[in-house]
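Structure ticket #2291
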Amino acid sequence: MIKRTLMFFLVSAVLLTACSESKLINFVGKSENWLVKYSVTVFDEKSESSKVTIRYIGEKPVPKKIKYTVETATGKTEGETPIENGVLVTGEDSCSGCSVTQQNEKITATITWNDKSESFILENK
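Resolution: structure written out below.
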């Protein structure tokens, strides 16, 4: 019984330590019409997950559809989609066995809508 209890605490400690090593990095950038947040959770040196939040901050009316690209040093997230109420939140993208996003990276966002386009840099905040 004591061996089981000790084993349980040992396994729990290892799992809690492994979970606490992940790091959340938020990159934020703003243009005249858009605010973009790129959130990355780095689990270790070869795996991460990311999510993009795009908010329209320009004058009304809100565009019905946008095309977006968020480009890091190791890849890009892109899409063309309707934007409801001026906000778009993408699903999480994950990778394992990949190069991960670095804290000092400069990330480029490009938003295209209604025959207009803006590109700007996202920085770690």
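Closing remark: The CA atoms of residues 16 and 66 lie 41 Å apart.
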